[in-house]
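Our preliminary data section would be incomplete without showing what the modeling component actually yields. Below, a chain of 240 amino acids is followed by its predicted structure, encoded as tokens that our downstream tools consume directly.
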Amino acid sequence: MNHWPQKQMCQLLQLTNENETLRSAATLVRDLGFDYFQFSVALNGPANPRLAGMGNLPRKWTERYNVMEYAKTDPVLAHCRRSVTPIRWTDELFATTPTLQRDACSHGVSHGISLAVHDARGHMSMLSLTRRTLAVNEDEFYAKGGCCLWLCNLLHERQGEHFIHALGRSTPELSMRERQILHWLAEGKTAGETAMILNLSERTVNFHITSAVRKTGQKNKTQAVIHATRTGLLSGVTPA
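Predicted structure:
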């Protein structure tokens, strides 16, 4: 088992900036033997909550998860909503959701550990550590569970409130056209390329981008795309 360097742990304890925290957490997760991590927050209440968070999962998998609305059937999320007991990803766990499991594996998110923290208000923070190959056996699960719990609690304390506030704000009413344009920007397309795809003028595309930035309360189109992806605003978008 790899041990986390004390210097990196101390550094993470001192960070408050989201991007710096993301990079430092990703390094620690790799040291623990995993490729990816995702820290997600859900508000108390709805059975099928919107999620907000941070992580280094493949972007295409994050978009796919939102488009397919997998949060409604994800057994990992369902477990974490009701329990703080860590859970190991197994075939038995995904027995009733084989399509979700196959889809995740096709994007390199195959094996993992997940756990949750619930605060006094009932809001949940969930942490998943995942990798492409090598299933997590019971020995590794118990050996690394404590490190996962430490990291989940730290991220909950440092970043949880930020995402709780983001979810608590009114959902911006983006038009379908605005959502389509943000979808293509998230795919790496320029405004000009998006205009060609949607058979619009570039001026019209830029008009909708400006509107989406304003509605989401972000500073620029890049932040608007990130916000829309993380908060599920691009779920169910028809690309054209």
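DSSP finds ten helices and five strands in the chain. Residues 176-230 form a domain with the Arc Repressor Mutant, subunit A fold (CATH 1.10.10.10). Preliminary results of this kind motivate Aim 1 of the renewal.
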